């Protein structure tokens, strides 16, 4: 039996009607059985849903935002479908359901659970539109609700996968369908043991593709992007980038750990464990090879730049005239863990601990209030964390020109700088 192929199309590859048409052409030339297509929300719809949630939380009017979001999806449909097509009432129906959810009360306490009930609408809409369009093009695919496959715990917004249950569902429910037809489903969303919607963390659709691939013992995963593959820096920020023809799992995982947003950080591990290759390819040039990530890659180390924006540097100084000890670090990590905050950089001195974290709604104030008894705290927001792997020291100073450096750390192959533009 042929092994399953998993394709993942992110927001950029379904951002408008021409993009959906392009996706259909990619599928047309590659369609076969044992084929899973994972799609994300269209364009920046998830950000727009987050904006609606923020307004709702602040008790402000979000009706205009909902209208714009609905108009955006209907305008795409008008370009893709003939008048009277079934997709139009389906889209309307999703917005009725969304409105119904938005009529429920929200508070800071139930925010994460509420968020997961709302935020997945982007994927539900997108997957319906793409599925109907493929069928209109005689590319028959079945629509599958990912929440019936991806089983998670109840850690809303950052749900952890129950691999055993998910595998069972994929083998029992998805595999038989795949032998008949290709299946199209959503990235990013799952459900907990009570059937409540959960999400895997922002940009988690790449991870969904990896979860499904591992659970189906797939042959490969391809994630289709608006870049030629994995480059040694983000081409939207840096010039003269170089494409990696191949990377081994460890190199790729390291890049994602430091924040190379082209691949979601959780994607590599399940694929590496199962020995499933990951292709990162351009949906604009689908016949080009892109980057192959697998275990036998022979890539020479190349200076690689990774930039993480919206960083907060928090400096915690001990107040009891002692020096930094394990107990202080433990205390800080305990709180970070409770708030599900990951440390992107850590530095200790005799009397202080400096940590760099992502900016996240409510989290900084919660961290400060939890630790204020033990430490004197100062923080700087709006910073960038620059990581350079295998730095080329001759060209390195250019990266700091015009920037104020807040924190610096280097090992043999890695330099990290926290900076802000002057
Ligand atoms: N090292 C890198 N190589 C290629 N692209 C990168 C890299 N680092 C960041 N990117 C960015 O990742 C983007 C693609 O990822 P993403 O926006 O998450 O895609 P999608 O949401 O469509 O799946 C590119 O447009 C590029 O700006
Ligand atoms: N739509 C979700 C999930 C996702 O993975 O999207 P994308 O594939 O466009 O990064 C988000 O924006 O977070």
TrEMBL record:
Alphabetized UniProt keyword annotations: Amino-acid biosynthesis, ATP-binding, Kinase, Nucleotide-binding, Transferase
Keyword Lipid biosynthesis included in the entry's annotation: no
Top-level enzyme category: transferase
One GO CC annotation: cytosol
The protein's annotated pathway: Amino-acid biosynthesis; L-threonine biosynthesis; L-threonine from L-aspartate: step 1/5; Amino-acid biosynthesis; L-lysine biosynthesis via DAP pathway; (S)-tetrahydrodipicolinate from L-aspartate: step 1/4; Amino-acid biosynthesis; L-methionine biosynthesis via de novo pathway; L-homoserine from L-aspartate: step 1/3
Superkingdom per UniProt: Bacteria
EC number in record: 2.7.2.4
Gene Ontology BP term (one): threonine biosynthetic process
GO molecular function (one): ATP binding
Name recorded for this polypeptide: Aspartokinase
């Amino acid at each position: 039996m042929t092994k399953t192929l998993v394709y993942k199309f992110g927001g950029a590859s379904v951002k408008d009607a021409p993009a959906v048409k392009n996706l259909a052409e990619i599928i047309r030339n590659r369609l076969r059985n044992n084929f899973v297509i994972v799609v994300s929300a269209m364009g920046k719809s998830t950000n727009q849903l987050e904006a609606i949630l923020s307004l709702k939380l602040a008790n402000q009017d979000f009706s205009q935002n909902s209208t714009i979001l609905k108009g955006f999806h209907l305008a795409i449909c008008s370009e893709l479908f003939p008048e009277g097509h079934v997709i139009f009432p389906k889209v309307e129906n999703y917005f009725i359901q969304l409105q119904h959810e938005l009529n429920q009360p929200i508070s800071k306490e139930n925010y994460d659970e509420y968020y997961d009930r709302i935020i997945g609408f982007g994927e539900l809409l997108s997957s319906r539109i793409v599925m109907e369009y493929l069928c209109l093009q005689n590319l028959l695919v079945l629509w599958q609700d990912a929440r019936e496959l991806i089983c998670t715990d109840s850690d809303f917004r950052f749900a952890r996968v129950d691999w055993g249950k998910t595998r069972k569902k994929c083998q029992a429910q998805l595999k038989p369908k795949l032998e008949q037809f290709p299946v199209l489903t959503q990235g990013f969303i799952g459900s907990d043991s009570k059937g409540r919607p959960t999400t895997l963390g922002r940009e988690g659709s790449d991870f969904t593709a990896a979860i499904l691939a591992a659970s189906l013992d797939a042959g490969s995963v391809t994630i289709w992007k608006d870049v030629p593959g994995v480059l040694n820096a983000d081409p939207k920020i840096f010039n003269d980038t170089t494409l990696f023809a191949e990377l081994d799992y460890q190199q790729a995982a390291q890049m994602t750990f430091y924040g190379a947003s082209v691949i979601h950080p959780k994607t590599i591990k399940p694929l590496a464990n199962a020995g499933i290759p990951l292709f990162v390819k351009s949906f604009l040039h689908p016949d080009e090879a892109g980057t192959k990530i697998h275990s036998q890659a022979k890539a020479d180390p190349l200076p690689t730049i990774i930039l993480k924006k919206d960083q907060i540097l928090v400096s915690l100084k001990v107040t009891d005239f002692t020096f930094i000890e394990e107990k202080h670090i433990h205390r800080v990590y305990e709180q970070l863990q409770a708030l599900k905050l990951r440390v992107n950089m850590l530095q200790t001195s005799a009397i202080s601990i400096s940590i760099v974290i992502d900016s996240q709604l409510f989290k900084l104030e919660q961290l400060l209030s939890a630790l204020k008894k033990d430490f004197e705290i100062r923080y700087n927001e709006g910073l960038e964390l620059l990581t350079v792997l295998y730095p080329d020291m001759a060209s390195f100073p250019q990266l700091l020109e015009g920037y104020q450096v807040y924190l610096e750390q280097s090992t043999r192959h890695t330099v990290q700088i926290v900076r802000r533009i002057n």
